[in-house]
Amino acid sequence: MLKAGVLGAGHLGKIHLKLLQLSDQYDLVGFFDPDETNAKKVAAEFGYKYFSTIDALLEEVDMVDIVTPTLSHYDCAVKAIEKGKHIFLEKPITKTVEEARSIIELATAKGVKGQVGHVERFNPAFMSVMGKLENPMFIETHRLAEFNPRGTDVPVVLDLMIHDIDIILSVVRSKVSNIVASGVDVISNSPDIANARIEFENGCVANLTASRISLKNMRKSRFFQRDAYISVDFLEKKVEVVKMKDAPENPDEYALVLQNAEGIKKQIYFENPKVTQNNAILDELEAFAHAINNNTTPPVTLEQGTEALRVAMEIVRLVEQKN
Prior knowledge:
Elements: E1 2-7, H1 11-22, E2 26-32, H2 36-46, H3 54-58, E3 63-66, H4 73-82, E4 86-90, H5 97-110, E5 114-117, H6 124-129, E6 138-144, H7 156-171, E7 176-184, E8 193-200, E9 205-211, E10 218-225, E11 228-233, E12 238-246, E13 256-259, E14 265-271, H8 280-294, H9 302-322
Helix pairs in contact: 4-5, 5-9, 7-9
């Protein structure tokens, strides 16, 4: 079992601590949090071992799960890598692309593995259709959330939209060619609602909307590709797959058949992929353990996390340019 330590014992950090303790892939050694009052409270309430310094924790572990505020990701990661420890970094990977690239260089030099916590990759609804997403040419995403003061210190693009940016980049096998974006500061001092259009070299277009001032929560993505429409509800963990095929000469009386202007007939049919419920955070952590133990590539690499951040930061720049 890998000896694991957690940096950060806030809301998400406590979830990670609990899951690492439950996992049969890790031996949870303990945690560090700079807020001593909070750290002692967490240690007393849950029984996790509290380390008074990062260095003390690093001496005892094989990997660290960095769940601190994004501003401190870089410093925490560098300390861990320099001591030869594998790193799991919550999203976004760091606060700047330059910091992220520096981490990649250092991790490569030290021979340690890193994974970024883009947890929607492990959403059971998305996982159930991954094999069906073949060269989508139009993608539309909506990630809407009711207002919550936690997270409003960063633009909604880095808080919410980055999830969909990562999903799209993992699906579209092409480079980004152009981005158009706009957004509005409504309650916060940074954009609370934003829309972006990402164009790719292969002709694919993705239209993304994110809001943290909505009246209801929504996390939906729609993928359109030749002869197929795939809808993924990340919140409700549901999928819808609508496909088309050449209509048979004598279709069933209940078959849904469409005929275009050229007289070509297509039959519409539905697929219902099985969605196997899971704990996405536990799965991403254990996938990282598998990569370490088997010396394989982590499912969400530092490079992929960096590209998601690069695109997100460009969207933020374009939004701020208009405001």
